[in-house]
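Weekly structure sync, notes
Attendees: PL (lead), two postdocs, one rotation student
Agenda item 3: pending single-chain targets
PL asked that the sequence for the first pending target be pasted directly into the notes so everyone works from the same version. It is reproduced below exactly as submitted, 114 residues in total.
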Amino acid sequence: MANVIDYLPELEGDESLYIGKLLTQLNEEQAEKFANVYRSRRKDPQTILITCLLGFFLIAGVHRLILNQIGMGILYILTGGLCVIGTIVDLINYKDLTFQYNRKVAKEVHSYIK
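Predicted structure, written out during the meeting:
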């Protein structure tokens, strides 16, 4: 039975709990593969926070593009982060946006590994 701290000690909060549940379904070899692939594909919340902050000074929407939300990213670029209001909302919710993306990645990797 795999432990999330053994394979992905950098995870925190809800992400750690979610990944921990997925890892319990894998053997040691599968858990190691999962950790390696997931680590390479996941997005760090701090990166999303920094790129979201760039929306105030340079180009809004870069964080949405990084999270593979192409339509929203283009909309933010064209509207100045939906007149800055969308950027402010995303700044408050950056951890949740990142967790939603990482959860999708984890599901994909888990189905591939299992």
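Discussion points:
- The chain has one domain: 4-113.
- The chain is about 80% helix and 0% strand.
Action: rotation student to compare against the earlier draft before next sync.
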